[in-house]
Amino acid sequence: MTARTHDAFAFASLVTVAVYYPPSSLNLLTLFAAIVGNNIGALVPDMDSAGNRLWDLLPAGNFLGRIFKRIFYKHRTLSHSLIGLFLIYKGLLWLLPKILNLNFIDAKIVIYSILIGYISHLLSDSFTKEGLPLLFPLRVNFGIPPIARLRITTGKWVEKYLIFPGVWIGLFVFIYYNQGKLSEILRLVGG
Prior knowledge:
Layout (H helix, E strand, L loop, with lengths): L2 H18 L7 H16 L9 H5 L3 H12 L9 H18 L7 H19 L31 H21 L1 H12 L1
Helix pairs in contact: 1-2, 1-6, 1-7, 2-6, 5-6
């Protein structure tokens, strides 16, 4: 999938999880950090690709991207596996409390938001012809549906004209039917 499809799918996933598992407290800084974190989480699995949009956002990103590409040696390996997900989770548990001001930002909500973006990336990539190496280093790829010929090709017309707009339409319909629950969550921010 392309970065914009991953971003849309991650945000839709974040909103969906928030409706079914609403936070007990939320402030504006945590909400902002959660949305930004969700977007970053949606891009992190592709850090093994030098052309990842995440590298464009960082100082010396192109240089770092080339280094990471050499470390991973191939796209869709460790970062697209269950081991990669676990390592990112453990890394976030260690890193975020050290860099966030915990007096103002709820690190737990931000970690979950990043992971929702990360998992949504893996889920959406499972619909592509390449599938996912969930059990990396084993060379077995998983995809939905199990027959690769029935899956989509990244960046082609199905993604551009059906999947991407479909995610946004689905999100707007979901928001419409759950606006009461979402309003309650937003009220937490206001006071």
